[in-house]
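Thread: quick sanity check before group meeting

JM: Hey all, I'm pulling together slides for Thursday and realized we never actually wrote out the predicted structure for the chain we discussed last week. Dropping the sequence here so it's in one place. If anyone has concerns about the input, flag it before I start.
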Amino acid sequence: MKTSLILIITALAIHSAYAREATTTVYKQVLPDGSVSYSDQASDRSETLEVSPVPTVPALETKNRSSRDDEEDDSDRNYKLSIASPENDSAFYSGNGSMSISVAIDPPLRRGHRLQLILDGQLVRTQSSQHFALDLVDRGTHQAQVNIVNRAGKILQSTQSRFTIHRPIVRNN
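JM (edit): ok, ran it. Output follows.
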């Protein structure tokens, strides 16, 4: 009999402890301007609220592709990649330094593969579009390199082109 009573009291104590943890105490206060403020700290004009936990749904587990699958995807795609514009060793005028670099690629990029533009050894941008719009490119000769990279950043294919930009200068005589 004593053992049963002890078990019942223990079960009730554990249940009430979990029941208290299931709610959160929040304090609501209406400010003089009519706005409502909620806090975890009580004040002399606050109203105590017990907030029940928000019901949640566990996230679905998704299958991740292994890195080995990515390597197989990379090896079976041979791209033909070239910089279509500006042509290699070309020269052109750009008054404000705006220009574009267009890439020809066949077959189309596979999902997860992207184009990476490097101008004069500096990474400019990584994107999936075959058109790179650039602003304020200095006059002079530049080296452009376009890489096809996978999700891990591994270079799958690369091409280069050299071009010269002429820009007018103002001379004060």
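AS: nice. Residues 28 and 47 are 5 Å apart (CA to CA). The first strand starts at residue 24 and ends at 30.
JM: adding both to the slides.
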